[in-house]
Design brief:
Elements (H helix, E strand, L loop, with lengths): L5 H16 L2 H17 L5 H21 L3 H38 L17 H17 L8 H9 L12 H9 L9 H30 L7 H32 L17 H7 L2 H15 L6 H19 L3 H24 L9 H20 L3 H10 L9 H27 L10 H18 L13
């Protein structure tokens, strides 16, 4: 069930009605049942996996809390992690590893036909797997009490606004809010509605229209000029931001209508000046998850430079693989790790020398281009496409082709209004409200956004990019 569909609007109305009208003890059942309907809308077979994952972590967490020895706790945690990663690995990575192994064997002269399975990737499995795993790990660490109520815990795992594409919530933040029925306060409703409108504007007006441009260019790689390549990846940079941040804003707004607060997944990531800050402001819930459950356990910043660099590279490589079972995502993760390592080396050397002042805007532009170079690896469907794209950057022939500048003009058009509003939000240091102080300014802003959504929005035609992860 897509947020940008009419069926979701009716679903949300029904869920809000049940949440506020049913007796308190039944509202939690309604929320859980609705979340299962929301998730099963794609494929009812997916429900079995999420129920299995829920039950495993619920009972393992209780067993860890009741265990008499540290060894038993470690064994139970290991069982939980292996089961969760086993399910994720089988459905998401089985064919990737089998195909890669077959290619490797054929390369060294061993002819073998590695068969693959016709597997359907369950929507959101990467997100809810990490969410339930973090809960069990926190119980093991002693920072989280095991939840006593299975219905409450199941609602935590399946809470529909953030189920399929995050944010990846921690139990300590979301679980307490689900124990009792929450109520949205009257003064919070405008903020919730703004988040929903802003999310739809980013997704339906900007991202989905830019997707048409990007898809058209990737369909004709061999004929692209250098102008097309740059337009394509600048367009994709804003497409993926609008698509993913749009989903996250809608999720935050919808949850707020139920009186539930979700963490923010984005904080102006294209206005940062270095790669470290980028990962503190892009897909924040995943960045923090990788930091707390992978990077720090590996050793984090402890040890010498080589050890820290190893930890960074491993974390980002696995973070890239989390995004998808393909070598382009592994390369993207490696690229991000290398950029972080180079920045760390440069930052340490800079402290020993006299700092050179670089204007803020130049640092932002440089960092944005570094990010866009990574998006080329992320968006390309395979390694051959990456090589072709890089080759077309040398294609200076036909650079005055009118079509290249038509795509450039369309990209600027669909980016201009969202970017202007986002820049105002950045200046005001808040994305919590319409970026105008006067009531008239807010009315004009929302009216223009609604008008553009109705007249130029690409409704109900494109899924969210991160649903495939």
């Amino acid at each position: 069930m897509l947020f940008n569909s009419l069926v979701f609007v009716w679903f949300l109305i029904v869920m809000l009605f049940l949440h506020y009208v049913l007796p308190r003890k039944w509202s939690r059942f309604a929320l859980l049942a609705g979340s299962y309907v929301f998730y099963g809308w794609w494929d009812w077979r997916f429900l079995s996996l999420i129920i299995i994952s829920t039950c495993i972590d619920f009972f393992v967490a209780h067993s860890i809390e009741a265990a008499s020895t540290k060894k038993k706790e470690q064994l139970l945690l290991t069982c939980s992690v292996i089961t969760n990663l086993g399910l994720l690995g089988f459905f998401k990575y089985f064919n990737f590893f089998v195909t890669s192994l077959g290619t490797l064997l054929n390369t060294v002269g061993i002819e073998v036909d590695m068969g693959t399975l016709n597997l359907v990737l369950p929507v959101g499995i990467s997100f809810y797997t990490f969410q339930t795993m973090s809960y069990t790990i926190d119980v093991y660490r002693g920072s989280q009490k095991a939840e006593k109520n299975l219905i409450t815990f199941a609602a935590f795992v399946t809470f529909f606004p953030q189920l399929v594409a995050g944010p990846i919530e921690r139990a300590g933040h979301l679980l307490p809010q689900l124990k009792e029925r929450q109520h949205v306060k009257r003064e919070q409703i405008p903020t919730a509605l703004w988040y929903i409108l802003w999310g739809f504007f980013l997704k339906v007006f900007m991202a989905d229209n830019l997707a048409t441009i990007v898809e058209s260019m990737y369909a004709h790689l061999e004929s692209l000029t250098i102008v097309d390549v740059f337009v394509c990846h600048y367009a994709f940079a804003f497409q993926i931001f609008g698509d993913f941040a749009g989903y996250s804003y809608i999720a935050v707004g919808v949850a707020a209508l139920f009186g539930i607060h979700l963490m923010h997944n984005f904080r102006f990531p294209y206005f940062v000046t270095n790669p470290s800050d980028f990962w503190k402001n892009w897909h924040i819930s995943l960045s923090r998850w990788l930091r707390d459950y992978l990077y720090i356990p590996l050793g984090g910043n402890r040890g010498g430079g080589a050890t820290v660099h190893r930890n960074l590279l491993i974390t980002m490589l696995l973070g890239g693989l989390w995004h998808g079972a393909a070598w382009n995502f592994v390369l993207w993760g490696g690229y991000q790790g290398a950029v972080l390592i180079l920045f760390r080396i440069w930052n340490l050397s800079r402290k020993r020398k006299t700092a050179i002042h670089v204007p803020w805007i130049l640092k932002v532009i440089l960092m944005f281009n570094v990010t866009c170079a990574g998006w080329l690896l992320f968006r390309s469907p395979d390694l051959e496409s990456i090589v072709t794209m890089l080759g077309q950057m040398m294609n200076w022939s036909n650079i005055l082709n009118w079509k290249s500048y038509y795509w450039l003009g369309m990209t600027l058009f669909f980016v201009s209004v969202p970017l202007a509003l986002h820049s105002l939000q950045f200046i005001r240091k808040s994305d919590h409200a319409v970026p105008f102080s006067s009531a008239l300014g807010k009315v004009y802003c929302c009216t223009i956004m609604v008008f553009l959504l109705i007249t130029l929005g690409s409704w109900g035609t494109k899924s969210f990019i991160y649903f495939q992860f």
